[in-house]
Amino acid sequence: MPYAARPGRRPPFVNSRLPHPPSSQPPVFTPREFRDALGMFATGVTIVTARGEGGALIGMTANSFNSVSLEPPLVLWSLGHKTSSLPAFSRATHYAINVLTVEQRALAEQFATRGIDRFAGVAYRLGRSGVPVLDGAAAVFECFNRSQYVEGDHTIFVGQVERCSHREGASPLLYHGGVFYTEHPLGSLSATVARPMEK
């Protein structure tokens, strides 16, 4: 059961008087090993879209997306500091996170390619705040750019969701180990697993 904090009391697991503050140990792996290990966590694939200076459309493929809170409705994603679109996303008041379907793999690759017009030939509409919302996405979260936190070599964006929608039955585009995957239903639980364990 969650701990219900009383006024003036700290949760029992908080120790603010440690005699020697803990410190992290140096990594014993290479950046490549770290990247490869992270790649073993399967994720969905999104395209984050916004408007830059003068109303220019900006967008990029990202799989660093997660939920944060239901009340208020918050989500997050992160962007590397070497990414050229970081200043534009940082200044934007709103952005949309478009969760891709398996049919949109080509879009994921297009919005990850440098030096091209990423919106060329892309079907979209303007959302509530004027940012592009991609047609056919599995889900869309239209967000107010609520807060940003610099951690390491990335900036974490926390968005407050103002509008969201989704397509029932859409098959998501998945990413694992540097490879795109499609969703394949694995069926219901086996009889052995579904049956309660005997004691």
UniProtKB/TrEMBL annotation:
Assigned protein family: Belongs to the non-flavoprotein flavin reductase family.
Matches recorded under SUPFAM superfamilies: FMN-binding split barrel
Name the record gives this protein: Flavin reductase (DIM6/NTAB) family NADH-FMN oxidoreductase RutF
Keyword S-adenosyl-L-methionine annotated: no
Protein species of origin: Diaphorobacter nitroreducens
Keyword Oxidoreductase: yes
Keyword terms: Oxidoreductase
Domain of life: Bacteria
